[in-house]
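Marked as duplicate of an earlier ticket. Keeping the data here for the record.
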Amino acid sequence: MPTTPTSFSAQLQKLRKERGATQEQLANHLGVSPQAVSKWENGSYPDGDLLPKIADYFEVSIDYLYGRTERDVPVVQQIINELQTLPRKGDNTHEEYFDKVLEYIWAMQIAGWRDNRYYYPRNIPGGDKGHTASSLTDKMGFTFLRMNEDLQYYFIAKTPPQGFAKRLGKPEALAPLFEFLGDIINLKVLMYMLSLNGGEVVKASTVAKQLNIPVERAEKALGFLNGIGGECRNAFNEMLIISDNGNERPEKAYDAAVNINCIMVMLLAAADTVLNQPVNYNIQIGTTSTAWLDRSRLEFLKTGGDHEKEKQENR
C-alpha cells in the first residue's frame, strides 16, 4: 500500500538535497539500507533511536525534521537577523538599533555573573541619580557599561597575549596628546572642531574669533590636530582655499572627519567617567586582583631618564 508524503518526508528530502547527499550516502551514515531512506522520503518514519543521528547529520533539531520549528541558526546570526528587521528613518538613521544593541550588551553583562541565568531589563537612571555602571574585570580583559540616560556607552577590552603594558605603557608616545588636551584653549579648539558637520570647513581666523583667542593659538592647535593619527592622519584635515581672483595667497582651512572622530568622543566620555566615578553598580564582577599594567614591561622603570630632557624632545 503506497504511503503519503508527510512533513517529515518532505523535510528529509529537502535537507538531503541541500547537503548534496544521495540516499545511499545517508543510509551508509545511519547504518541502514538505501531502501529505508527511500521509504522515509515517501511517507514512512524511521525508528525513534535514529532521529538524533539524522538531526545531527543535517545539524538541525528533531523538531525541525518534523517542520515544527525554523532551522537552528547560530545565536550570532539570529542577532544579525533581528537587527536587520529594525526600521530605519528616511535619513538612514538607526534609532532603535542602539537601544537593541545595549539590550544585548546588558545580557552579556548579566551572563558574566555566574548565578544570573535569566534576563531582566536594565535600569536606565536619570542623570540626577548619580552615575551608574556595570563592569566585569577579569584576567582576560574587562568591560564597562555606563548606564545613565545622559550618557550611555560600552567599552570592552580583551587582554593582549603580552598584556596591556606592551602597547600602552609608553608615556613618551601618549604624553603629547595628554599635554595638548591639558591646555584648556586646545581642548576648546578640539571641541569646536568636533562640532563641525561633515563637509564643513573652517579657517584658523574663524576658530580664533569664535573662541576669542589669538589666531596664532588657533593655528598651533589646528596644526597639532592635523598631525595626529599615526600613518592615517585623516581625523582632522588641512586644505588650501584659493580666492576667486587667484591673486591672493591661498588660505589654510580645516575639516573634521565625523566618522573617524567618534574615537575622540569616546576619549572625552571616558575622561568624564574618570572624573565622575559611578556611585552605583548594577552588576560589578571582579575575578582578578592582577594589575592592568605589568610592571616588568614598563620600560621606563628599567631605563630611568632625564624627564625634563624627555619633555623637551617630545615637544
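See parent ticket for discussion. The mean pLDDT is 88.
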